[in-house]
UniProtKB/TrEMBL annotation:
This is protein-serine/threonine phosphatase. It catalyses: O-phospho-L-seryl-[protein] + H2O = L-seryl-[protein] + phosphate; O-phospho-L-threonyl-[protein] + H2O = L-threonyl-[protein] + phosphate. Its EC number is 3.1.3.16. The keyword Cell membrane does not apply.
Length: 346
């Protein structure tokens, strides 16, 4: 049960930022606390009969643009974040470093951790990053095109909060009665222009812009550039002063805009944890492109908890290789655009 793991993490205490270990770290089997196999890296934070938290990532770029963060300490409880960066690592690193400190400040009042406090923390992180963009604009204008999706989970006094910007996903695995089966429940909303509801939302927010979403190479994109409609960063799509010839042509819009195109206002859900709730998978969109929610929870459920995150990513990579009619080993060598990050709390 989740509660047992939370007691374990509280006993461990402290903060665990999950950055890949140096390349010299030796690879190990499923029971290893940490290991590396080529571009695949994994670490298990805590394991016992009560539960486990594990993380894994495949580095698909020369610079790792994704980050994740885990901490367990009062008064917040247990916090987990997955930050899927794009156009560079700066926004993901910034969000990883600042979101939960901002949440501690926002939740310091008598109400404690609430959806409003989480929203305040997201918006404070956005404001601080945009201030950084402003300071660096003269010397490093490309920082205006850097952004990140943010997926955060907070378990506070048996209440689970999940907040999201972009298209990373949190999926709960829960028992189905006494059948021994597991069912998937998606907890997060996805802000991706390929979703009909997201396109309708954008068109209603920008009724005078017939090109607010455009189909490009079979993929719906906001202004024909980016798939996500909500993110942290991406200043060039939020403030028109950054839409100039100083940024790369592929990001530049042909005309100025009067209001932000992308939003940093997260979708937030809360629910009381139940005895049937077994584990939660937090992962970037790369995992979900190749595994359904149900496939993912069945993979976790049908194996021992140790190495769950690594096992999920390997399953997604094997499926990606199958779709491309190539070997897994060859995919790992040539695919430089696939970065999967998975974090499992059980």
């Amino acid at each position: 049960m989740l509660g047992a793991l939370l007691r374990l993490l509280s006993a461990c205490g402290g903060v665990w930022p999950t950055s890949p270990a140096p390349a010299s770290t030796s690879a190990a089997g499923d029971h290893a606390a940490e290991g590396r196999d080529g571009l695949l890296w994994w670490r298990d934070l805590a394991r016992c009969h009560a539960g486990e938290l594990s993380v894994s990532v495949v580095q698909g770029n020369n610079v790792l643009e994704d980050q994740c963060h885990v901490e367990s300490a009062p008064p917040l409880g247990t916090c987990l974040g997955v930050f899927d960066g794009h156009a560079g690592p700066d926004a993901a690193r910034f969000a990883c470093d600042h979101l939960f400190p901002n949440l501690r400040e926002a939740a310091s009042g008598p109400q404690g951790v609430t959806a409003d406090a989480i929203r305040e923390a997201f918006l404070a992180t956005e404001e601080a990053f945009l201030a950084l963009v402003s300071r660096m604009w003269d010397t490093q204008p490309d920082i205006a095109t850097v952004g990140t999706c943010c997926l955060a989970g907070v378990v506070h006094q048996r209440t689970l909060f999940v907040a999201s910007l972009g298209d990373s996903r949190a999926v709960l695995g829960k028992k189905v009665g006494r059948t021994g089966q597991i069912a998937a429940e998606q907890l997060s909303s996805e802000h991706n222009a390929n979703e009909e509801g997201v396109r309708q939302e954008l068109m209603s927010q920008h009724p005078d812009d017939p090109q607010i979403v455009a189909l490009k190479h079979g993929v719906w994109r906001v202004k024909g550039i980016i798939q996500v409609s909500r993110s942290l960063g991406d200043a060039y799509l939020k403030h028109t002063q950054y839409n100039t010839e100083r940024i790369k042509p592929k990001f530049r819009l042909s005309e100025p805009f009067s209001k932000p195109i992308l939003s940093a206002n997260p979708s937030i859900i809360s629910r009381c944890l139940q005895p049937s709730d077994c584990f939660i998978i937090f992962a970037s969109d790369g995992l979900w492109e190749h595994l359904s929610n149900q496939q993912a929870v069945e993979i976790v459920h049908s194996h021992q908890r140790a190495g769950s995150a690594k096992r999920l990513i390997k399953a997604a990579l094997h499926e990606a290789a199958r779709k491309r009619e190539m070997r897994y080993s060859d995919l790992m060598k040539i695919d430089k655009k696939m970065c999967l990050r998975s974090l499992i709390m059980s």
